[in-house]
């Protein structure tokens, strides 16, 4: 009943409007009189669209063979007075099919020309249909052109030229073109009809070439058929200005420095994807990316040559991993030629490398081969270069270096070191293969010979080189799993082999110290029941940033084993095999036995000589026992007062004192095991920041920071040097990691951001942002979370800090945030074992201003969120799903942004930052930005548009939402119309 009454009411109103039109025409009302009288029929605030006012007027105006200009003036007045909407008028015009009445069609075309500059939408109901109405108009214009072209082009000249002119205006107007693009997604059937009609018009033009000169429309047809972001006036972001003035890429070398330090065994494809992300963020070509990667490796290798730290790691990475990275980046595009296969981008990158003459001179030598030539040889093997291109490079080098003094290979330590590291790495590859093949053999057949085989790789730096090669070739976990297998077999029972257990235990400890337990024991290779070494590392092994509880170690001991162990340690000729238990149980009981010795010494129940004899018995029997004792002693010292440290410290030092030739036990491979044991215990001391004797030889690159200065001064000094150089050397890399671990990620991130904001010039800021992005890869997820949830709210909310958000610092901070978001998002999709650092995000949330904490659940009416990414559309991309903590951070941040923009609906530092942030999210990510923006509150973008209309473009708005969803299209239409209305508003 209600529906019938409502329908009759509309019919009655429509009849009244038609009667009013007839009366107006008969009495020849002016458009002003029409406007006065129609208000007697239309209720206040009600649009004429409800009663089909536009349809009524056009029916009356076009009823005869010619148009009724007076009635048409009523339509124009109604449109100006907002009695009807543009959407309703355009939809009604698009339904007109009286092409046999050229005067009426021309009248409509002239009418469209008169209103086209003001087409917009000022009411919510019309926003959803305006885009389709504009597309319908485009289809009608094509029909006009097509009808005139196939009828009589000479007599329908206006019907040819005016549609072409109107379409040209539409496709050159950002707003109208954006609405056409929106309608393409909103009404796919209608857009298919438009494309079909375009093809029909093209066919007619081909049959009658004169049409192309009378009313050229071919270019417009092409644009209509290819409405895509980046191909029409829709875009300026896809072709955004790329800063080609940047002389160097500062982030690539720093990123590689962090990655090689943290995890040299990272998967090649994952590292290649990280580098691709940097290329996409920076807008570089792939050739430049490859050149910068090679340059970064050469710089880092030159930095470590001749030192005892990182040399083998960087050598293996440069000569073995670098070619694989370049192949992962470009290997899918190999070009075949008569001179051999090659990749064009890699060939160009080698030519670009020639501009870095000083670096190449440092890495070259006058010998027949050199570091760079070794890299080129590997690239030839992978078919990324051919021999002719290598020859061309050599000839180019001769031209560039002509007249320069060549270094003598006999006096150049750097070059000799480069050649030496290359040679040993080349020799280490087959050695690793032989070891892996040997470890594949049956335990019973090689248990006696295996210790001698393994001892050969423990001489000098051989073990370090083997591990470096295994890491970069992705065989480290395979090596570890095989060592664990033999360690398990040798620990007890009928297959017990103490020396083999001892050697494999030491090797596994060293590998864990070098690479971290998450890297070594993570992944599919380590699935299944935990081995003894995995359990021991998890519960006892001291690692950086992962201290262990000394009391927990004691709880793992067997008291009967402890008593037997102490008895053997006190005897003149200890025999641990007489205890009658497996070596894993003995290792677990060593901390408790060590505790007994410490306590007895402190109570004077044991003399210093007694303690020394016990420790000598321990270290001259099995080298794994001093390590088990040292990890407990170092952990124990962490909870002791300063005046109680001397005795435990001296016990650790006793393990490290040199053994004279006459004191060396007559055990197989003892020297090799003792040397490795000393390295492991020293590393434990460094990791736990345990003070050592001044007489003890300590590595010059100790990663422990011991300074009387405040940490902020220490960071400032380190960062100033890094900023000046523009790259990370080994010393700075380790120092920054130590500060990160010592002070915590919250202080670290805030301090680095403060260092960036101190800079004043754009070039300095861009360099700093690149370097900070790379350094944040120490833990990119945690750093990004802190940056978004802690640092940004302080800068936007704190009145002192937000005064620093001026340009160019504002854009630099926004860029850093965006870069970190994309890097953290990509990192979530990797299979790399996550290195964890101690951090308590609850403490971070406690420090966020209290009044802002409720933003997590939305701000008042802003809680509604545009779900601009459907599950189906997200599955079409290769982007990983956004997961916590990044997801939580983004939700908080966008709600916080909405709060900021609603509280300050005018231009301010805060609103400008929010705009720059969103703009950079879009410009850096393009279509991939939409998943990141899906949690924006509905009020955020409109608030920004009102405050900063001149900064927004239709292209930016179109990229903010997912147009494959209804909610995304609705929000896009609303924001486009708001931007249009503000642009049409007269300036004061």
What does this structure look like?
- Helix 6 runs parallel beside helix 8 (157-172), helix 7 (124-150) packs across helix 9 (174-186) and helix 13 crosses helix 15.
- With 988 residues, the protein is mostly helical.
- Helices cover 65% and strands 0% of the residues.
- The model is unreliable at 1-9, 231-245, 403-416, 692-704 and 840-877 (pLDDT under 50).
Derived from helix and strand composition plus strand pairing, the structural class reads mainly alpha
Alpha carbon gap, first and last residue? 52 Å
Mean of residue pLDDT values: 84
Strand proportion, as a percent range, falls in under 5%
Rg from alpha-carbon coordinates: 38 Å
Which ranges are low-confidence, i.e. pLDDT below 50, for 5 or more consecutive residues?
Answer: 1-9, 231-245, 403-416, 692-704, 840-877
Residues in helix, %:
55-70%
Major sheet details: none
Instruction: Please work out how many helical segments DSSP would assign.
Output: 49
Shape: elongated
Q: How many strands in all?
A: 0
Concise overview:
This protein has 988 residues and is an all-alpha fold. It is built from 49 helices and no strands.
